[in-house]
Design brief:
The chain is of the alpha+beta class. Helix content is 24%, strand content 35%.
C-alpha cells in the first residue's frame, strides 16, 4: 500500500518566510531530483504523525503536489532542538529506471528461540538498518534477519542475510560485518570470576594442610659424647 501525503507549492523563501509558515502550522520543504527543485509546504500534524511510521522512512511515497501525484523518497528532515516540531522536510523525486540508495530497517525474528539465548546469552544488535541499492519497484519496507541458529558467542553477518530479489548491499557495508551477536551477560561473567576468586583461597588451605601432614619429621641429632 502506497503512503500518500499532500503538499502545496510555495514561492516565498528565506528564514522569515519559513518562520511565518511554521506559525500557521505548516512545514517548509523542498522536492528535488529530476527537473527543477520545487519549494513546498505541508500540514505539520499530518507530517509529524507520518514520520512516526517506520515505512514512511523507507518506502516510495506518493506526494500529491497541487493535485498532481509524483513518486518521491524522504531524504531528510529537521526537528526543533527541544519541541515536538518538524522544522523542514526534503523529498527526492524517483526515476523508475534508476537505482536508488536507501537505508532500510532490519527486523530481527526468532530471537527468543535462538540456541545462544536458551543458554543464557543476550542478543546484541550491532546494526539496526542496512544501506541498500535497488530499483524503486524492488525497494523493501524492511529486511528480515533470522536468528534461529545463532549460538552463544557467535554472530550473524551481512553475508548471512537473505536479501530480497533485486536488492544488494551498498555503501560501507562488508560481507563480514556483524549484524547481531549473542553473548553471556557481563554481570554473569563477573559473578563467575568472583566465585572463582573466592574459591581459590578455600581450595588452597586444605592443600597446604595436606602438605604439612605429609611432611616427615626431621631426624633427631645424636647426643654429644661427654
Amino acid at each position: 500500500m502506497t503512503i500518500e501525503i499532500a503538499a502545496t507549492s510555495r514561492k516565498a523563501q528565506g528564514t522569515g518566510a519559513s518562520r511565518r509558515l511554521r506559525k500557521t502550522n505548516r512545514v517548509p520543504g523542498i522536492v528535488y531530483g529530476t527537473g527543477e527543485a520545487t519549494m513546498i509546504d505541508i500540514d505539520h500534524n499530518t507530517l509529524y504523525y507520518a514520520l512516526r511510521n517506520e515505512a514512511f522512512h523507507a518506502s516510495i511515497l506518493s506526494l500529491d503536489l497541487d493535485g498532481k501525484k509524483q513518486p518521491v523518497l524522504l531524504r531528510d528532515f529537521q526537528m526543533h532542538p527541544f519541541r515536538q516540531q518538524v522544522q523542514h522536510i526534503d523529498f527526492q523525486r524517483v526515476d523508475a529506471k534508476k537505482k536508488i540508495h536507501m537505508k532500510v530497517p532490519l527486523h530481527f525474528k526468532n530471537a527468543d528461540t535462538a540456541p545462544g539465548v536458551k543458554e543464557g546469552g543476550i542478543i546484541s544488535h550491532v546494526l539496526n538498518d542496512l544501506l541498500i541499492a535497488c530499483l524503486p519497484a524492488d525497494l523493501p519496507a524492511s529486511i528480515e534477519v533470522d536468528l534461529a541458529t545463532l549460538s552463544l558467542g557467535h554472530s550473524i553477518h551481512v553475508s548471512d542475510i537473505n536479501m530480497p530479489k533485486g536488492v544488494e548491499v551498498a555503501g560501507h557495508h562488508h560481507a563480514g560485518d556483524a549484524v547481531a551477536t549473542v553473548q553471556v551477560p557481563r554481570g554473569a561473567v563477573e559473578a563467575v570470576a568472583t566465585e572463582a576468586a573466592a574459591a581459590a583461597p578455600a581450595a588452597a588451605a586444605p592443600a597446604a594442610g595436606a602438605k604439612a601432614a605429609d611432611a616427615k619429621p626431621a631426624a633427631a641429632k645424636p647426643a654429644a659424647k661427654k
